[in-house]
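Sanity check

After download, print the first record. It should look like this:
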Amino acid sequence: HVQLVESGGGSVQAGGSLRLSCEVSGLALNNYCVSWFRQAPGKEHEGVARIFDFTGVKYYSDSVQGRFTISQDNAKNTVYLQMDSLDTRDTAIYYCAARAGICIRDDHWSRMKYKGQGTQVTVS
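Expected structure tokens:
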């Protein structure tokens, strides 16, 4: 049984930081591309970062490049999203998701096979 469980969301002032965690069970992460998506009210899911740890490839959206960092701890089967210099535009529900194979830069939410329930991030 595959599960992706996000944690670490919350409320923060603009300029602050949060670290999200995505604990994965039931998958061998070295064979999967793991992505962080976010969805703001009234908007579609936006891919913000993804990682294929086997090759070390990481992608970031232009909106978070230089502020967010994705990483993976294989011993804990957990993927992290460190978010710095947060802005009100970063307010959204953040989801982690996974699909088999290498990452591509502009992957879409609909292509993800496994998805978490999300964690709310509010920046004021």
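If your output differs, re-run the checksum step. Summary of this record's structure: The CA atoms of residues 70 and 81 lie 5 Å apart.
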